[in-house]
Specification:
single chain; mainly alpha; two-stranded antiparallel sheet; 2 strands; 36% helix; globular
């Protein structure tokens, strides 16, 4: 293999992150997408700082105007949905992605597909593309 054929450091990080997140989330073989579900922890998918831009990208991807309320939860609603979870009472965490209200599925992100992959990957919000959990950070620190 020539040097030209080797992936760049950035591409290598992308590939390791993809494998870790989709096949070895939190170091649990076969587990994936924990950051895309609330599960039973105090977790929130927010704030989405690029909410307007995300809605624009999502509307293009879906081929229709996607309303804010379909995708996001604001503070008052979030507090009502999860009154016992402190992260849902913090105004700094909003707007947040509206979870699917399915406790058995761990309250997943509405864009998490049945195969536990992102169905809007190309249009996903900045918080999703930049998020690195503690486990992934440790894995990537080795590179």
């Amino acid at each position: 293999m020539s040097v030209e054929e080797l992936p760049s450091r950035g591409r290598l990080i992308e590939l390791v992150a993809l494998h870790t997140c989709t096949r070895n989330c939190w170091g649990r073989e076969g587990y994936s997408a924990s950051c895309c579900t609330l599960e039973d922890r105090d977790w929130i998918q927010g704030p989405v700082v690029d909410s307007d831009a995300f809605l624009e990208r999502l509307s293009v991807l879906r081929g229709r105007d996607v309303p804010y309320e379909e995708v996001f939860v604001d503070l008052d609603e979030g507090q009502a949905l999860f009154p016992g979870r402190p992260s849902w009472r913090d105004p700094n965490n909003y707007p947040a992605i509206r979870p699917v209200m399915d406790e058995a599925a761990g309250f997943p992100c509405p864009f998490l597909g049945p195969d536990r992959s992102c169905t809007v990957y190309e249009a996903r919000p900045a918080m999703c593309s930049s998020y690195r959990c503690d486990h992934l950070t440790k894995v990537l620190d080795v590179l």
